[in-house]
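Entry:
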Amino acid sequence: MRVTIETERLIIRNMVPDDYEAMFKWCGDPRVNKYMLYPLYKKAEDCRTFIESLNPDAEKNYDLGIILKETNEPIGMGGFVWKEENNAWEVGYNLRYDMWGNGYVPEAMKAILEYIMEREYVPSITGTFAVENEKSGRVMEKLGMSYYCDTEYEKMDGSAKFKAKVYRRDFT
């Protein structure tokens, strides 16, 4: 969906091709990529290709850029995608390493969730994180989510597999 949301410190909006160099700062960083599904990006142009593949008009897909209001620079991405099979919106996010620990991800995700709840049916939200990635679990807890079950997942390129937890929050 085409979206612009503002919080006290952030602008949350669709990514545009000109954001590709900023995006490479997190997609090309092994510290950020360690637990992500996608493989480590090797060049900034790969980010441009990814952004161009996004459909800002896709229904039930709020995959948005997190922009630091102070500098107008993209510092991450996050959002929710409807998963019919789970009857839930699935959360996902990543953030530039030097921005970790400032509360930007919970701030962005709460704002996106509020936006969606005003427009869509939201029976539940879910998220999966690698057991070793406790900070990601903490973000989900700040969204009111709690432990639901254990699982595992593998990077898209098969380069790593992780024991994981699924967190969930039901609204109905």
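Residues 104-117 form the longest helix (14 residues).
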